[in-house]
């Protein structure tokens, strides 16, 4: 878990950046197929999707997911194992982000004006969840946590070195 603002920003940038990139590619491919313009469509949709995802992550989904997880799901046993906490929060985050980003996706594609909006949203939500959950738990989450762990380890070594220097003075 990030311990300060710098770590939170890096962690969120990696997590949101990778998730939005892959999910944008997936959704564009699902909508248009594997066409010659696929890469350009992904690059066109990526910046706005990333901005929306970061805002949702930091201001809405993140705080709600963490609050619900620690209030209702994470118990004393789970607190002894940080991996269980990470997995729980990751699942809660995916559920929240898929809920909002699926709506964002159909809105951007102009499908809100069409009929059968609930069917379109439900279909989009399920298909996004099927890809986003394993993507988060197996690929993106471990990458982001790995980078965060290296940052925290480097910060701890730096603090330890500074403490030794202070003791010598």
TrEMBL record:
The chain crosses the membrane at residues 9-28, 48-70, 82-105, 125-148. Pfam families: DUF2798. InterPro entries: DUF2798. Signal peptide: none annotated. It comes from Companilactobacillus farciminis. Keywords: Membrane, Transmembrane, Transmembrane helix. It comes from the Bacteria. This is DUF2798 domain-containing protein.
